[in-house]
Structures are given as C-alpha cells and as structure tokens.
Amino acid sequence: MGMTTETSPDAAGRVAFLTPPTPAQLRRGTSPPAEAAWGWACHSLIVRTRDPAPVEFVRSRTSGWRLWETAVPAPHGSAAARERLGREALRPVRGDGCPVRAVLLRYADGVADLVLVAVRRWVPRAALEQIADLVLLGQDPDVPASPGEPPPARHAWPTVGWGLGDPQRDGIVGTRSLAAHGLPADSREILTGALALTLARYTGEATVEVGRADTDTPRWEPERVRVQIDEDEGPAALLAGFDVLTAAPPQQAVPPVGLLTTSGSPDRTYLPSLRPVFPLTLHAATDPTGTTELTCWFDEGSVCPDVAATFCAAVESAAAHLASAPAVPALSDIPLLAPDETARILRLGGADVRLDVPPERIDRRFEKVARRLPDAVALADENEEVTYRQLDERAERVAAGLRELGAAPDDLVGLCLDRDTALVIAMLGILKAGCAYVPMDATYPPDRLRYIAEDARLRLVIGAPERFPSLDGVEVVEPREVDRRGARAQDAASERPSRRPRPGSPDSAAYVIYTSGSTGRPKGVVVPHRNVAALLDATSGDFALGPEDVWTLFHSSAFDFSVWEIWGCLLTGGRLVVVPYWTARDPDAFHRLLAERKVTVLNQTPSAFSQLVRADQTAHAVRTAGADRTAHAALSVRLLVFGGEPLDVNLLTPWFARYSPSRCRVVNMFGITETTVHVTAQTVTPADVAAGSRSVGRPLPGWSVSVRDTRGRVLPPGAAGEIHVAGAGVASGYLRRPGLTARRFAVEPGTGVRRYRSGDRGRLRPDGRLDHLGRLDDQVKIRGHRVELDEIRSVLAAHPAVRAALVVVGAAEGDAAEQRLDGYVVLDRPDGAPAVLDVTRAVLDEARRILPPYMVPATLTAVPEIPLTPNGKPDTARLPAPTALARPHSAGPVPDAAPPPEDGAEPDGLAAEILDIWRRQLRTEVTASDNFFELGGNSLLVIRVLTAMRERGLPAVTPRDFYTHSTADRFIRFVGEKRDASAGDAPARDGGGDRPPPRNPADESATASHGRNRPGHAR
Amino acid sequence: MTLKGKTAVITGAARGIGRACAVRFAREGADLVLLDIAADLPGVGYPLGSRDQLDHTAELCEREGAAVLAAPLDVRDPAGVDAAVAAALDRFHGIDVLVNNAGIAAPSGRAVHEIGEPDWALMLDVDLSGAWRMIKAVAPGMVERRSGSVINLSSTAGLVGYRNFSAYVAAKHGLVGLTRAAALDYAPHRVRVNALCPGSVRDDPLVEGRMLVEIARSLDLPAAGHEEIFLRDQPTNALIEPTAVAGAAAWLAGDDAWQMTGAVLTVDGGFTSR
Fold it and tell me: Which of A114, A333, A494, B26 allows an S-S link to B61, with CB 3.0 to 4.6 Å?
C-alpha cells in the first residue's frame, strides 16, 4: 500500500498532505538546508488503529523518550485530518535528541494514527515496526538515546537537464500516482527496465544509470544499476543486461531517476524517506496480497511537475510493454507517448497554428506598398534617397533590362554588388523579371564566386565585371548598363501602354543563398516568394512594423538576415538605410548613423551587438562628461532583433541599463536559412537576463517546431533532441542536390508535411517555448566525457570581468589526437584593473568552482574581441594561439605591465608606440615591415588598435585609412603625416574610395567558412 | 495561512494577548508550543494564568488544525526553560517563531523609593530576564537553520514613563533595548528580533484577559469605571483589542516581514503619538 491511500491528489497532481514550503523559503531560494538534510535521513511509519485505548504510558521509564498524544477535532480521512497526518509524517526528527518521535493522532471518530518518524540509519524499518507494535500494546518500547553522530546530509544532486526543475523550488516535493496494470507480483526488474528505457529516450544515451533502493533490507543504501539499451533488441535482452554497481555512489553520481521498493500492509503506510531519494523517485509499495501501488515522488527543484507527469506516463507505457514481453519484438516498437500525447506536443510546438493569408510574391506585395506610399522614402544611403515610386520605376527598368539581356522567368540571376541603393534596386528588378537572385558578397574570394556561379549555372550576374572572375558563359553586367538597356526597351515599348502580364507565381524561387556545407562545398538554399511573404504576415502585426519605421541594411546580401532587413522594411513601407561597408566595420560610426538617421528597427547578431553596445556606452560617457557637445544622442531604436547565432543574455545588461524594455522591445529570434530567416521569437526582458534564459521563444504563426530523437520520434517537453522545423518557412530544398534535400527535408508519410532537420539541438518547454542548446555536432567528448561547449562558455561569460567568451576544442601541442578545451575571454577592464593574467586566472578559478574538472578549459586566453566573420558570427579560425595559464609566470608574448612610452618621445617614439599597440593587439612581435593582417589582424583588431591610439592621444585614424596603410611602416608614416598636418592646418586626406579594401588574407580565410558558424563550434 | 509549516513558541499563552496570538497563529497554519506559569506567584497580587486556561488555549488552537504542545513553565527557571525548549524541538524538530509574552504588571503602584528589593527583582526577573532566557535557549536552533522570528511583547511603558510604575516601565524599556541589541546579534544569521508595544489593552473576556484591571487596581482606580479613565488618553477613543496585537504579531512572525528586524512597533491607537 502506497502513501496515497489516505489521500487523493489535488488538481495539480500533488498529494494534499505534503506540506509546501513557506513563501520565505521560496524567496530565499531554498528551505533551510538543515531541514532538507534531515528529511532525507528520516523515514516514517503510519499505523492506523481503531482501538487506541490500550495506550497507557506516555513517557519511557528508562529513556527520555515519550509518546506525544494529540486530539484532532475531525474524523479520520477528512481534509483537516489528512493535513495533520501529513504534517506529522513528514516532520523530521533531530539527531541530537531522541532518534524516534511517536505521535498518536486521535481523530474525532475514534480512529487513531500512530505516526513514527525516525532517523533511518539508527532505527531501521524492522525496529520501527517493533516500536509501533509495543506502543500499540501499551508497552514501553525503551527507545535508546541517539548515538549522537548525525547522519549524512542528502546527497548533492546532479542537475537533471531534461527535468526543467525550478531551483527556487528546491526541496519541494511533488507526487503522482501511476497505474500498475498487468505488472507481475515482483515487478522490480520490469520497473527498473521501464525507468531505464524512458531515461534513455529522454537523454538519447544508449547507456543509462538508474538508482535503486530496496527498503526491506535492514540498512538500505541506494545502488546504481547500469543498463545498456539497444533499441533493436527485444525486452528480454534489456532485462537481462542490468549491471549493478554496488560501490557507494559518489556525491555527484546519484542517478536522476530511481526505483524505491517497499512492502506494507493495508493499515501500515511506510515512507522510506521524507524526501525523494533520487530527484525523481518511483516508489513501488507492495502489500501482502501482491498488489503494487506506484507513486512517483520528485523534487521540484530538479524536475518540474509537467515534465514529471509526462515522464510518469512514459514509464507506465514502458512498464506495460515490457511486462508483455513476447508481444514486443524490439524496444524501438515501444511508444512512450500515446498518440494523443504526441499530437498535444506537436500542437505545443505550433503545429496547428495556420497563417490565414493567401500566398503572395515579394514584388507584387512591394508594388502594393509603392502604390500606397509613392512619395515615402524607401531607400537611403550616403549619396541619395529613393522614394517608393522611384524604386518601383528603377526596378522596372532593371527588369526590362534583364529581359533584354535574355533573362527568362525562373532564371537564376547572380547579384554581386557592394552594399548601396543599386543593390536593392537590382534585387527588386530581378524579382520583377520573374527571376530569382543569387546574392554573392563582393568581398568573396574569386574561387568562391566562381564556385557559386558554376554551381548555380548562372548565365547573368549583375556586378562589376572587373571584380568578378571571368567565366565562360557568364555575362557580368554593371547595374548602370542594365538600367540603360531597360530604359531603351521601355521607350521602344511605350506605344503599348498595357503592362505586360507579370511572370512568376508565389511558389517560384525568390532567392538562392549559399551556405557552408558540413562536408565541404557550399550549397544553395532555394527559398520561394511565398515564404518571405509569410514571414512578414507572421511578424508585421506583432512587431507593429509600418511606414514610421527606419531600418538598416547592415548585413551582407549573402547572409539571409539581409532578406529580413530588406523585405521586412520594404514590404511594410519603412525606410531602409543602407549601411556603408566601412560604417558597418566601425562601431562608433555605426552608432552615429543609428542616432542621426533615427533608426527604429535594428537587426544584429549578438557578436556584432557586443561592439555596438560598447560604442553606445562610450557615446553616452562622452556626452555625459560634456567633453564633446556634438556627440550623438541616444538611439531611437524601438525594436532590436537578434538573429544568426545564440544570444547570451548577459550581453544585454548594459543595454537595459540605458534603454527600457517598454520603449525598445528586444527580440531574440532563432532561425536558419533553410526555414526563411526566422523560426521562433522570444521577447527578452531584464528578468530573462537575470535568469540567464536560453529560450528562443515560441514559433512564429505558421511555423512549427518539434524536438525529435535520432529515429525521428517526437520527444516530450524537457528532453533534448534535434529541432525539426515545419510550416510556412521551409525552403524548397537545395539547388540541384536531391540527395541532400531528401536527407535534410523529411516528408511525413501520412500528411505530406515537410520538415527541415536543423541539426540544432533544443528542447521544448512545457509552455511551448523552445530552448536552443547549440549545434548537435557541437557536442564534444573530452577524454570520454560528454561536454557542451556552450555550457562552459556561459560559465565564463557569467563572470563579472568577462564581456564575452568562446570555447573551442584545441589540439595539445605535439599530439593532435589529445584534445583540450581552449577558452577565450574578452575582459571588461576599467583603468587600474588588475593585470590581465590575474583576471583570467580568477575567471578560471571561478569556472573550476562551477564546472566538473573535465569541463574546465585547459587554457584561457584574454582576447581584445572575439573575431567575427563578415556575417558577424564568431570566427574560431582567427582566434590567437591559446595562452597556457598553467605556467604562472609566462604571461604570453606580451607583458601586460609594459610601461607606456614617455610623453614627448623622440621622432621614432611614435613608431615605437604604434608598434607597441600592434604588438599588444596581435599578441606577437611586430617589425616595421610586417603587414597587420598577415600577423593575424582582423577588422575588430583594427577597431582595437584605433581605440588604443585614441586613448594614447595619437591622431584619430579611420578604419578605412587603416586598411589602405596596413603595413607597419606605411601606417607609421601615415600617422606621422597626419599628426604633422593637424599641428599645421590642412588635415591629411586619404586617397581611398568608397569601396571595400582589396582582399586580404585574413578576410579570405574568414569568408571561406561563410555560413551559420556558431560559437562553441569545434574547429 | 501565512505561517503554514512554522512552529511557534508562545510564553504566557494561557490567556490574554498570549492566547490571542496562539489562536491567530494556529489559524495561520502554525504548530504551537504553548507555555505558561499556570500557577500563581507569591508577590504578584492577582491570579496568574491557570493550567485549565492553558489547556483551553491548546484546545482552541487544535480546533484550528494546529498540533499543540502545552506545558507549564516559569520563565524565571533556567532549567525549566531549557527543558521546555528541548521538548519543543523533540516534538516539532525546529522552532520558527518565539513570542516572549509572559509578563506581570504587579507589584506596582509605588514611587521609586517605595519599592522593595524583592518586588523590583521579581518584576525584572519575569518581564525582562525571562525574555532573555527564552532567546538564549531558542536562538541557537534558529541560527543553525538560518531562519527565525523573535517577538518581544513590550508595552507603551517601554517607550514612555508611567507614574508609580517604575519597575514595570524599566523592565519594558529594557525589553526594547534587548530587542535592538539581539536584532544586531542575529541579523547575520537571518534571525529577526522585533518588539511590539501595545497600549492599554481591553480585558477581553474571550481571552480571559485581566491586565488592565490589575493595572487599575495598582493605581487605586475604581474597578468598575477604569476603562473610561484609560479611554480618555486614547486618540482613537478605543482600547486596544488583543486580536489587533495578535495580528501585528502574526505579521512579524511571518515572511512578509522578512526584512524587519530591530523594529519597535506600537499598537497603541496613537497613544504615544501625542
């Protein structure tokens, strides 16, 4: 008989007599630690009697022990009586007093409960039974005093990842009853197997450990059972393969789930522990007739009630199937989720939310907007402003020009232009011609441009012929030339006033974006028009996008974040401000642009944003100090959208200090090129920052997500698996790669629903929000241990001195096979802060405190910035060589405490000073003939060098000037001239044009790995 | 149910404010250890709480669903205090709330130089040292669990003087001082110590109170019309109800007051605001 016989679960599935903690315990985080420890150390026995009259003694003659009697002015079984019984049965005893407490609860109807609570280690269950017998006979049980040494505290529990427990509810016990249909009398093995199979499905592990404790043994201790799960085998193999580990479990190795078996009788209820023995404990109580009652106890600090409910249902199902062993050929045939439960989980992931709008082409929708707002400014860059009418007309000319050039509907047209208004006009023109654009970043290396042109079989590219590799059969045409031909064609056609019928359908491809392939060559993702229209239908209402909004085009057109920037703006009537190449690389300049242009909708990758937020702080500090009255004002951004990589919410702390979430909404969006930019959206608040949330929110209306295991089975909330995306955003597939398309885009057999297998790891929360847990292939093994790089990164990033962090798997010197974790941190160092090495050591010490030893990085290197790819994602390939902290006095190549050069230095004092700055930023020796980029410099180090120069009072240099003078001696000469010029009157004039720089080695290596690189990506 | 899961120890629980607090705490979900001298005291010229009254308080609390341990205790007896606290811990595992309510109002009614050595010593032993002894016995357990609330029942006599009541006034002022000092001692351990200063409390027959009438007797006021006389000094034109004091005590005991410590809270209908 189980503990639930006298109680019935309340609506929340919690047995009423279990006492919840007080509000203060919740507020303070935990119940008093002493309480929790004692609760684990104690057990209790409840004996019901209808004839308590013989109890005559109250105090033992030989020991200090006594029987407490108390009247309960309510009949037994009533709510009040149950409440009292629960209070007594779950109230621990102290180790320093008497080891057994006996309380006789006399109910108003003559029934009584004798409640014995004892320290389990000193008073085993058999003794407890004997004490009860004696007390009920009215005899003195002669209980000895406590031996004095307190029992051990509760085992420290490991985090149960799938449990989604709330640490604030640590110590609160939830319970659920389970059905035990068809279980044999001794169901211990089957229940162990059921727990193991369920746990294996939840964790995706083939080997799991389940806890077990048989409380009928005199002095029971939990044991661990290791179970191998081969889903292709049948139940018999599972049940035969238990490996009982008798060694006492180490503190951190308490299994997350376990089985507790007890035997009892109808009038005796035994509680083996006042707290769950394992974070989730299945308690099987068997009475003399062989009837087993199953109750699940769980600590809400480890497992939340919703997850526990589904887990229990899965255990029920697994146990029933295992009990009918011959009927089950293989474990993989055992469904843990009932069909309606699976349907519920799919609905939770948004499967039944449909977008109730007809499909539409991008160009058609644009034309509607242009008709409505003909004179509103659609596009602006440094040189010009283009209204919606002008944009429409100029794009029409492009379309006409393309037709003149031989482009037919559904052709693919390459687009390789610098970021300016012409790019957007050409893009829209391509769509108006019924073609799809294939964007290529103008800074791509020639090999990559050639590869894309050939792979996409392009015949026509709008771009600069002198900057595109010449290829047979590929015509590269300047935008001006397309416009000219278009105008001519329109003149010729002007006698025919009716516009030609529009080519193309909403199902035609709008663009093909190439993303990096894990197996080498990039692959083209084909996205149809209707997907982009659906993206706007799904978001424009919620984000209140409209003509008052000012957007930036910040990202490369080859990165699909730009699809959102361009069409999100132009299909809702907003003004799109094109961010020049150089401005996008200069956070201060970009900040100035945002302020001056009064940008309201800003889209950023978290990595790029980390620099912008610093520029914002600098601008604010300058203005507050009154040092520069011309410094730009606060930003007008009302919507800040993160995309492209996982967001570390810590990044937002300085942002929220300046911008209220009620005036500027911050939205974290998860998405993939193959699902049309976005999938989910989560509004981030300061509360999420405080909680360190990893949520990416719920799917957009029309999009849906499910988390599935490697066999494609839907996993319940809490369990981590691969994120599958279905709905309005799923791309058509990969260009001319039917095999790959079939592998990554699954088709549901019954419904024909297409799902994209993202390769991202996630878990659904019971409220339908998705947690993003990194890449599936991010998971690394270090000497056999499973390690999440993102977890280590979060720990490093949580240190107050750390602004950003990255963890990669590096190879140990001399032995590529022996892997090692290398950590990189960007430190937040105000003036007068301790030396870098001291800080990194402190960060590592803190990490040691939080992480198991095998997860602590072997090296931790302070870097000025996390290097980024052109798409603003972390570029692990460009991290410097790691600094080993194990040798305390080798501070790396650059001693941090080097004295600054003296003022009024010699003529070559300037050279020494600049070389010193380069040396520090590049972390290597620099001579006058070295090129910055050949020494590992990158666009962010450029920013750091320029910042350092400003701090030392050297002349201000723009990033553009830096790129055109990237060899040390040239740069020193340039700065010297500039200083001399400013000492006179004429400011030095640089000769650089508006174009991006000639390609340099560093940028080539970065763009080669273009695509959705994520932090923590193994290199 | 703001005190659900808590165990409260109340001294002087047989009647009056002690009983009002006990019943209110029971209603808020607390389990209770009810202590009272449950006997008369030589030197105090009026009957103190009885065992019957203590048992009646216990029964009232049990009706509210509380588990109750009721026992006689003279707070002047250190061994008795230790034994009572040990029994409370055996029965209830931990003590969350201590209400130091036990106190006497007589012998009083004399000017300072007229008070005899034994009378002065008796008043301070019960009203001030009794509270100290209880804190001394209970606080270590609260410190160990890093949780607890101590409420000392002082009086408006802990804030202002009353003629011919110097021993009582001194003891109640002392209780305010003890509160402030103890609050600092235990603040790092998250154990809170606060004082409650009731004004003239009506002798509610429901709680069998008789403090006011005994104070009146000490002042040679007419037993029949004494309430009228006390009422004259009450800005609210009402005597203080025991349940109002119990309400303030329940709040101090509970977690809503989790940042209140060292506070001296009056429940006096504005008396000391004049």
Answer: B26
Q: Residue A806: which of A789, A782, A818 has the closest Cα?
A: A789
CB A583 within 8 A of CB A554: no
Look at residues A113, A127, A136 and name the one whose alpha carbon lies nearest to residue A54.
Answer: A136
Q: What is the DSSP letter of B106?
A: -
List B residues 14-53 in contact with A (Cβ-Cβ < 8 A): 31
CA A63 → CA A14, A42, A98, A100, A151, distances in Å? 39, 21, 9, 12, 21
Whether B255 and chain A come into contact, CB under 8 Å, resolves to: yes
ipTM reported for the complex surpasses 0.85 = yes
Terminal alpha carbon distance of chain B: 36
Q: How far apart are CA A131 and CA A45, in angstroms?
A: 10
Residues 53-82 of B with CB under 8 A from A: 59, 62-63, 65, 67-69
Which CATH number is B7-269's, of 3.20.20.140, 3.30.2350.10, 3.40.30.10, 3.40.50.720?
A: 3.40.50.720
Q: Do A24 and B68 touch (CB under 8 A)?
A: no
**Separation of alpha carbons A79 and B59, rounded Å:** 19
CA distance B7 to chain A (A): 11
CB pairs under 8 A between A and B: 67
CA distance B126 to chain A (A): 29
- Which tokens hold the place of A152? 């051990």
Q: Which residue of A has its CA nearest to B189?
A: A32
Q: What is the pLDDT of residue A251?
A: 53
Structure tokens, A810:
């590096």
pLDDT at A893: 38
Distance from CA of A83 to the nearest CA of B (A): 8
Q: Kindly determine whether residue A87 and residue B31, on different chains, have CB atoms separated by under 8 Å.
A: yes
Distances from the Cα of A981 to the Cα of A494, A953, B91, angstroms: 57, 15, 89
Residue A408 in contact with partner chain B when CB distance is under 8 A: no
CA A307 to chain centre: 19
User: Among residues 11-40 of chain A, which lie with CB inside 8 Å of chain B?
Assistant: 19-24, 27-28, 32-35, 38
Both tokens assigned to B127: 């009203």
Q: For chain A, how are helix, strand and coil distributed in percent, rounded to 5? A: 35, 25, 45
Q: Do B67 and A80 touch (CB under 8 A)?
A: no
Window 208-237 of A, Cβ < 8 Å to B = none
Q: Where are the domains of chain B?
A: 7-269
- Tell me the Cα Rg of chain B: 17
Tens-digit pLDDT profile for residues A897-948:
334 444 444 446 888 888 888 888 766 677 887 777 655 455 666 777 888 8
Q: Give yes or no for A275 touching B (CB within 8 A).
A: no
Q: Report the 3 state secondary structure along A885-936.
A: CCCCCCCCCCCCCCCCCCCCCCCCHHHHHHHHHHHHHHCCCCCCCCECCCCC
Domains contained in chain A, CATH given = 38-136 (3.30.559.10), 161-332 (3.30.559.30), 337-354+704-773 (2.30.38.10), 779-862 (3.30.300.30), 909-1008 (1.10.1200.10)
pLDDT digits (tens, 9 = 90+) for A948-1007: 888 888 888 887 788 888 888 888 888 888 888 776 554 444 444 455 655 443 333 322
Measured between CA atoms, how close is B5 to chain A, in angstroms?
7
* Planar angle of CA A879, A885, A887, nearest 5 degrees: 130
**B86 close contact with A: CB closer than 8 A:** yes
pLDDT for the residue A18: 33
Q: Is A250 an 8 Å CB contact of chain B? A: no
Task: For the beta carbon of residue A870, count every other beta carbon within 10 angstroms.
Answer: 22
What is the token pair recorded at A651?
């990044």
Give the closest of B5, B146, B258 to A19, CB-based. B5
The angle subtended at Cα B168 by Cα B167 and Cα B174, nearest 5°, is: 90
